[in-house]
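Q: Mind making up any chain with structure tokens?
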Amino acid sequence: MQIAVPQPAPPSGTILIVDDMPTNLAVIGALLQANGYRVLAAQSGEAALRYAARSPAPDLVLLDVVMPTMDGYEVLRRLREEPATALLPVVFLTVLGEPSDEELGLSLGAADYISKPIQPAIVLARVRTQIDAARARELLRNHNAWLEAEVVRRMAQNELTQTVSIRALAHLAEIRDPETGNHILRTQAYVLALATELRNHPRHRTLLTERFVALLARSAPLHDIGKVGIPDRVLLHPGRLHGEDWEIMKTHAAIGARAIELAELDTEQEVDFLSVAKEIARWHHEHWDGSGYPDGLQGEAIPLSARLMALADVFDALITPRVYKEPMSGEQARELIRAGRGSHFDPDVVDAFERQFDAFCAIADRYADAGWRVRAA
């Protein structure tokens, strides 16, 4: 067959031709090379698989169907099984002209189906179309990958901004009450340890998903944010509070919850961690038996988030020094918390604390204030 060979054009892609007939390889190869394509030739299915697996991979495969040992359909199946070649566009070149043959090839993932004997103009047009389409898909995949990476980057940036903002607000309350030191870091870690332990409990595992536990840890530092609303004469009083001053101090729970509620109202959509933070701020001084404040909630009417913080807050207060008291040892604090099981604290939370007691002591030491360490006994 005579083929008019135009002036060579700059290379525009690599094409793998697979045919067991050397004459067909030569004819199609000459046509493609004359039109600016780089050509690879394989006379068997096995050789085709080896060429296709090389890096860089060809841009397109022109694949004969009828070949000995391994036919074109089997070659295509194997190409689709391997991640490196699964997306490689394949066009069948074959003498099989029945609609069922074409249907089978397309069902296996062929991009197109050209009957022999070939018509050069049709081959070139189909090749150009498939390579352009493959490059467009690759650009789209790269763009989508970039977009996904950008979304991840921005989410991480937002997470960091949110975390820093929370810490800044929490430290604002802490600065006004200098005795608390690294209290927010310790209580945050205690809450995380308790929540992680309770994820194994049948009554709590539904609520304590991985996401909710992360929300708890993020929200915990805001538990005492309401102390910014307490007058200095009460907040900085060098000793235990009594009477009216104690009643004023107790209002920090409601003040903190109200401040977070106002922040929620400023947002256009619900922010999950603010909802959890509001629960913790308002109700972390409630008692399991209903004797706490500010609302006298009892039992499971107290949100689990606040029940966790209630124990974490008390443990930290017991083991850290105050101007009006010496710090307790870890074991002394443990005994007091045991004594409060079912009265001050949720029994399930106390049981989780018992299992995590060593972790609590390690957390206390890790975030200890200068010149102080928790005493084991």
